[in-house]
Design a protein that fits this description.
Length: 88
Amino acid sequence: MYENKLDNDSYLLKKIQIYSQNTKKHFSTVVENKKCLILHIDSGCNVTSFKDKSKEYSSDDINNKFLILDGITYMGTSDSAQLIYMEI
């Protein structure tokens, strides 16, 4: 029973992706045409849905809220700032 749970947990952990890039205040496409669960973005980063770029989301809009977007476009101002997400 516990082995099965560990296998399932490992599967979920493998699905988590981290994206980090200084886009110099321009949006960059991260994921197209897939639903994504946004787990965390660092302060100073913004994301939009790939399909609907009319609404920008900041770390205040996203963190601890687990927003789902149709694809992701990302704007970061630092090479170390991170977007953490899962394709679902």
